[in-house]
Amino acid sequence: MDYQAHLASPPGLSFLPGAATGANMQLIKGDRGGMLSMSDDSVMMKQVQATHAPDGREVDVAPLLHLVEDILNRATLQVEPPLLAGQAHAEMEEKNHQISYSIVLDALSYVIDRISCEIAYKALGGADAHGTTITILETLTSFQWDAKLVMTLAAFALHYGEFWLLAQIYSSNQLAKSMAILKQLPTILEHSGPLKPRFDALNKLIKAILEVTRSVVKFKELPPSYISQDVPALSAAMAHVPAAVYWTVRAIVACANQITLLTTMGHEYALTTTESWELSTLEHKLTNIHEHMRKELATCHQHIDEKRSLEEYKMLVDMFEMIHIDNMKVLKSLIYSKDDMQPLVDGSTKRRVSIEVLRRKNVLLLILDLNISNDELAILEQIYNESRLHATRLDSQYEVVWVPLVDPSIQWTDAMQTKFDSLQSTMPWYTVQHPSLIRKAVVKFVREQWHFRNKPILVVLDPQGKVVSPNAIHMMWIWGSNAFPFTSRREEDLWNTEAWKLELLVDGIDPMILNWIKEGKYIFLYGGDDVEWVRKFTNSARAVASAARIPLEMVYVGKSSKREAIRRVLATITVEKLSYFWQDLTMIWFFWTRLESMLFSKIQLGKIDDHDPMMQEIKKLLSYDKEGGWAVLSNGSNIISNGHGNTVLTTLIEYDLWKEHIPVKGFDLSFDEHHKKIHGVTYPCCRFEFPNTAGRIPESMRCPECHRTMEKYTTFLCCHDVGNPHEPSLF
User: Fold this and answer.
1) Which InterPro entries match (predicted)?
2) Closest C-alpha to 480, from 563, 632, 597
3) pLDDT (tens digit, 9 = 90+) per residue, 40-61?
């Protein structure tokens, strides 16, 4: 691009035409460096502070700064003509600003004109920059620091913009051409090449001036209701504002001096090394000031955000204690409070929809981060789709909404976006359009009030927005859609209908086992990751069943973790045909998730240590899973025995010691009595592990074996499962 054409829009300035004398040149040049060494001079800052005597008036300088920025940007940057498509919008914005401009300029135009003349006169007369700066600050003594700076910048922009407006139109407008000749503009533009370093230096300095000015105004605009001078970050920043204003005004004066020399002496005047050093030094100083203020401003904004989030958090807490006509106010406060966009995505159509689609419906908020497993998604989707088959039933009408909860302090990345898009595309229910819609206060509320710890939770809201269950995920795993409307009362009612039967452990997982139950067969559910124990157990069980002439089926259900170990056991069972097993590892995961959910359901209801035989057996089974192999024996649906792997295997091996009781007591009682006898001697320890992500962790628990209060430890555990390092497990 031809540099002369480029100059038709960028930098430069002409205040008044005239001639610079050699004496004036020396005055202007003589100031180079002298005042620049006073950045930390306390005497100078006392002089600056002495000019400041505000009368209490408050000036909204934002509209004026907006206007000045537009002038300076268009004069220092190549600005293309606006596109026709955006012209209407630009005109509308301009109309909106007109009123604000008029109000501010009516009050300040006289002072701005006075400063403009002062700068031009001082520059033409060769006054030192420091003296000119102090004179300007004295003229503005009754204004606040932000107003002083913006008004000085406006005075600078007044003639700066006039000069470059003529530069842009003088070739097509006769009046502009005559004015340009008067200001020697054509001659300057014809010799633009040698002047390029001067314009480049001015461009950089003007950019630094604007950055510092914006920062000073931003500090003044900080809401006093959220931050006060008592806050160290703000008090420290405000202490630096006078120096920042001084050096910015000083830089404006330097720009005026340079342009005055150019317009008065013509194109033959070249930028000296000393003058170039002054501009670059001022630019460097203002850049450092801006960077320092930027950091302080960021600290202030962090303080404000924290106070606002705390205020919003308290409002959320209060809102959930109120009674509402419908659920709209609650849902908007959690997801998106404004009406300017559609915050949800319909899982069936993948289209954006309004939050109104949830009005007066039972809403299940599926709260989870981006790390949900395929197993969890697959089972949830299966349960959800089954409920849709009965959508006309009154007791099945609910909507699920995925609320993606991401730590707001973590930088959002392309990888996270890809993962979010992938998850969102697979979900058949409603999802929040993007995690950024979930505000910081909502994240805090969900973590502290609903105990979210990175494991999925399902918060249930009734049609009025009331929380009827703080986490129905356990109900969903145990009873599926039969738990509707997923209230705590419904949870208690469902537990009242349950008993320690085999159906409780396998319902909804494998119809094959349900058929065995109907046929009255003996069934061994067993698990563990010790291949040798599995081999001994299955062979011993088969031998006892043959000797006792009972129909026996065995099902291997793995462990709650260690998938690679489970795969090795499954391979052995397959090759040696040891028993029946679930080929789909998702079924194994679901078995243990349901079992663990039974424990958490009782914890949530506050009944973990009730004298409930069924719950004691569930706790035993979960504990045995941590100690090795285990087995549950049932006759049809009736569970005969639930024991640790060692005690059950010993009972089977010692069949000859108790088989004589079978004719009188029957197989079931004979097996159970001998097992209890062995169990009473070995008394294996019980152990439960609750990760921090489990959410509601009980303060204490009683041992299901001896009923004493268990000791509580903090454990650091590192279990390396090479095949699946992120496999889900509640324990």
Assistant:
1) SEO_C, SEO_N, SEOA
2) 597
3) 567 888 889 999 998 888 888 8
